[in-house]
Amino acid sequence: MIYPLLVRKSDESGVDGPKYELIAGERRFRALKLLGQAEAPVIVREVGDRDALQLALVENLQREELNPIEQAKAYQRLQSEFGLTQEQVASAVGKDRATVANTIRLLKLADKVQEEVAAGRLSLGHARALLSLDSQRSQLQLAERAIGNGLSVRQIEQLVREAASNEEKSHRSKPRDPHLAAVEQKLERALGTRVKIFHGRTRGWIRVAYYSLKDLDRLIARLT
Predict the structure, then answer these.
(1) Residue 119 CA to its chain's centroid (Å)
(2) What residues in the chain have per-residue pLDDT under 70?
(3) Which residue among 33, 34, 89, 217 is least crowded, i.e. fewest CB within 10 A of its CB?
(4) Active site residue 157
(5) φ, ψ for residue 199 (rounded to 5)?
(6) Which member of 21, 26, 81, 162 is catalytic?
(7) Distances (CA, A) of 66 to 24, 140, 181
C-alpha cells in the first residue's frame, strides 16, 4: 500500500459503527481482499456525490492501461459534466494542457476509426494524421488502408495531404456560398487584401494574402 484508500462516510450504519463508501482505490481494495487483509489505511473525505464521482474519474484516468479513446472520453466528461477547463483537467491528472487537448481531439474521428485506435490497431500517430481530414468517410478509408497494408505514419500523412488537397479542389469547384462571399468581401475591406474562406463540414480555414514583408507587418499589426 503506497497510497491509502479514499473513502467517505456512508449514510448507513452497521453493527460495529458507521459504514464507509469507497471513492478511489478499487483495485487496491480488491487486492487486499484477495490477500485476506482485514484492515487498510484510509483517508476519510467529506464530499458530495458530484465530487466523489469526479475523484473516482480522475483516479481512473491515472491508470496506465486506459487506451487513448477511453482517456479522451474521460477528459471530455470532466469538462462537460464538471465544468473543468482543459488546464484544470490537465492539473488534476498530472498532464500538460496540450496533451489533454490533443487527446480530446481524437473524438472528432469517425466512430469506427476510434474503435481501431482503442483496439490498438491504429497508433496515435496514425490517428492524429487522420484528424486533418474533414470527411469521416475519408478517415475510415485511409484507416482501413493503414491497417490492411501496414502503412507507416509518414505514408498516411502523405496520403492525408493528397486527400486534403482533393477536398480543397472540390470546395473550389462548387458554387460559392453567397454568405461566405459576403464575409470574404467584408474581411477584404477591413484588411485591405485578398481573403479566401474554405468551409468544410465541421471546420475550415481563412487564407489571407500579403504581397511583401512590409505588407505582412501591416497585416500582423492590424490583426493583433
Answers:
(1) 17
(2) 14-15, 49, 60, 62-64, 166-175
(3) 34
(4) no
(5) -115, 120
(6) 26
(7) 16, 23, 46
CA distance 139 to 131: 8
Nearest to 100 by CA among 114, 109, 90: 90
Which three cell numbers mark 178?
A: 453567397
Give the residue among 130, 79, 82 at the shortest CA–CA distance from 101: 79
Q: State the DSSP string of 20-88.
A: EEEEE-HHHHHHHHHTT-----EEE----HHHHHHHHHHHHHT-TT--HHHHHHHHHHHHHHH---HHH
CB 85 within 8 A of CB 97: no
pTM over 0.85: no
Amino acid (one-letter) located at 175: P
Q: pLDDT for 16-69, tens place per residue? A: 778 888 888 888 888 999 999 888 898 888 877 677 777 777 776 766 678 899
